[in-house]
Design brief:
CATH class: Alpha Beta
Number of strands: 7
Shape: globular
Number of domains: 1
Mean pLDDT: 93
Strand content: 5-15%
Largest sheet: 7 strands, parallel
Structural class: alpha/beta
Number of helices: 7
Helix content: 40-55%
CATH superfamily: NAD(P)-binding Rossmann-like Domain
CATH topology: Rossmann fold
Radius of gyration: 17 Å
CATH architecture: 3-Layer(aba) Sandwich
Order of helices and strands: EHEEHEHEHEHEHH
Length: 235
């Protein structure tokens, strides 16, 4: 997909990766960008169309799709991450929240916007996933589980939406230098680099993008007897 002249919708657009997506799409020549967030007063980019959106609320999602009938590119960026042990007292509740936002929220967005994309020629959907779709490490158990589910949903949506000519891309970054990973002591990609590579891959109609070499290593290890998910000792 060529971004120039296209209409894009970005969830979680008020900060972090979503904020960079909105700016980069405008710079790439998108004719209109809908910037969605739960609190639209937090959106500070000029020349965008703010949209109030809670991806865990079906009515909110359906209304967003109704008032944005010209969307050709959907970026499912909004997400949630809370650190904690899988054995903690609040682990089950944390897991529910992770799934409600990261997995079910993505599904609700896809259901609402699939007809919009179809009406506008098919277009594309970008789902922001994670290398942790394939790896569950200490203190990130709920997040990783929800990202595994979101990855599987992305693969299912790709198959179902292919018939309406909608390209579905899954993007798997490692840690990104945003507020979400502020407490992580590890190498991080800049949000600008993640967005640049994503839009480049979109221009090539790529179905899956793994941002860095570590991510490639994790994915490739899945087919080996000593897959990294069996031996990981990360904190």
């Amino acid at each position: 997909m060529d971004i120039r002249g296209k209409v894009a919708f970005v969830s979680g657009a008020n900060r972090g990766l979503g904020h960079v997506f909105v700016k980069s799409l405008l710079e790439a020549g998108a004719s209109k960008v809908y910037a969605a967030a739960r609190d639209i007063s937090s959106i500070d980019i000029r020349d965008v169309q703010p949209v109030e959106l809670d991806i865990t609320n079906r009515q909110s999602v359906v209304e967003a799709a109704r008032i944005c009938p010209d969307v050709e590119l959907l970026v499912n960026n909004a997400g949630y991450m809370k650190y904690g042990s899988l054995l903690s007292d609040d682990a089950a509740e944390s897991l529910r929240t992770h799934f409600e936002i990261n997995a079910i929220g993505t599904l609700l967005m896809a259901q609402a916007f699939a007809p919009v994309l179809a009406e506008n020629g098919g277009g594309a959907m970008i789902n922001i996933l994670s290398v942790l779709s394939w790896l569950n490490i200490l203190q990130s158990g709920g997040y990783s589980a929800s990202k595994s589910a979101q990855w599987s949903l992305t693969n299912g949506l790709r198959d179902e939406l292919r018939r309406q000519n909608t390209l579905v891309m899954g993007v798997h970054p490692g840690y990104i230098d945003t507020d979400m990973a502020a407490g992580v002591d590890a190498s991080k990609s800049s949000p600008e680099e993640v967005v640049r590579l994503t839009l480049q891959a979109l221009g090539q109609d790529q179905l899956e993008l793994i941002i860095n070499d570590k991510g490639q290593w994790v994915k490739q290890s899945l087919s080996k007897p000593d897959a990294i998910y069996l031996t990981a000792r990360s904190s």
